[in-house]
Amino acid sequence: MPADEHQLDDQHDGRHVGAPIEEWVFAAWTPDARLGLISGHRIVGRTAWYWSSLARRDRPLLHVTDFDVPVRADPFIVKGEALWAEHHCDDEMQQWSIGNETYASAIDDPDEALGLAYGNPTPIAFDLEWYATAGATLIEPAPGRTSIDEGYEQVGVVHGSIEILGEPRVELVEVPAHRWHRWTAEPTGFGPLVLPEVTAHTGVRSPFVFPDGTISDLVLTPVGWAQRARRHGTL
To answer: What is the SS3 assignment for 230?
Structure first.
């Protein structure tokens, strides 16, 4: 069962040097479920994976991935070709800054993000602040693994802005948010985040395919991101 916040101290929010695989994911959405965003990165040995998206009702999905970024001395700075992103901890277990400046792929059909993800290159920038509104809780472990291998999650709110070339600035004021932090020494790593599953849902979507072949096909609901059920499991 999830543990209370007292089982996690502030040191857990930083990099776990002994864990070759470690991941941070931040998500936020508007209460009407018309807009949702994701910003995540995973350290896999000496390489970082970065993925991000802005999904909006009746607009193209703005999709970003770079799965071959060298890990820097500061692992929270992700700098690839035409990509700068940062997840910076301002106050352990309380506040994070989430930023990026890059070109997103504007995709009309989210299913294309499960393939080559080709779309119109669109300059985009996140300038967001994530604030906790409750203590962190341990993620329910997968069979055969311990809670601490799976990490923890935390609810919060996001303030800030998103800039997209040719569009008005998107301003976010205390919108609902969530974050996850996972780490493991297992060579197989871990799959996508385990989220509630929904079927036949028409909300905005944010799919990703990761280098290990796992799929994260998220759909936005009024209470946050959920995993879209797939009839055949994988592509």
So the answer is: coil
106 half-sphere exposure, CB direction, 13 A CA radius: 12
Separation CA 139–CA 1 (nearest Å): 8
Inter-CA distances, 108 with 49, 111, 143, 168, Å: 24, 9, 38, 20
CATH of the domain at 158: 2.40.370.10
Do the domain assignments include residue 128?
yes
Q: What is the pTM of this model?
A: 0.91
Q: Is 83 domain-assigned?
A: yes
- The Cα–Cα gap between 40 and 166 comes to 25
What pLDDT band is residue 75 in, cutting at 50, 70 and 90? Answer: very high
Asked if residue 235 belongs to a domain, the reply is no
Q: Which amino acid is present at 110?
A: P
Our count of domains for the chain comes to 1
Who contacts 53 (Cβ-Cβ below 8 Å, separation ≥6)? 37, 38, 61, 62, 63, 64, 104, 206, 208
Cβ atoms within 10 Å, residue 204: 24
pLDDT digits (tens, 9 = 90+) for 154-210: 999 999 999 999 999 999 999 999 999 999 888 878 888 889 998 867 889 999 999
Q: Is the dihedral of CA 128, 134, 138, 139 positive or negative?
A: negative
Residue 233 domain-assigned (yes or no): no
Within its chain, how far is the Cα of 174 from the centroid?
18
